[in-house]
């Protein structure tokens, strides 16, 4: 099977960037069940999904829209401070 065939000895971190929330939950669970002890990071659109991903074993889950909004605000702040 796929999960048993993975060679994760050298892998330090996994970023789960797929769109399907269930795929992220299943992938996280399978990684942990296979003994992966590295960092698992994911994104989610909604807080309840982020919580489910973390409950499955992810170390960090970022709320996509919140992070996008924070990045946008940071960029606007830099633009406002730049000479015109």
From TrEMBL:
Its protein name is Uncharacterized protein
Q: Which InterPro entries match?
A: NAD(P)-bd_dom_sf
Q: Recall the taxonomic lineage recorded for the source organism.
A: Bacteria, Pseudomonadati, Pseudomonadota, Gammaproteobacteria, Pseudomonadales
């Amino acid at each position: 099977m796929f999960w048993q065939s993975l060679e994760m000895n050298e892998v330090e971190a996994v970023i789960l960037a797929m769109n399907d929330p269930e795929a992220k939950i299943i992938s996280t669970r399978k990684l942990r069940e296979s003994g992966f002890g590295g960092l698992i990071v994911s994104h989610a659109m909604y807080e309840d999904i982020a919580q489910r991903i973390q409950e499955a074993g992810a170390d960090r889950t970022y709320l996509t829209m919140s992070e996008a909004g924070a990045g946008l605000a940071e960029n606007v702040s830099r633009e406002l401070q730049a000479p015109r």
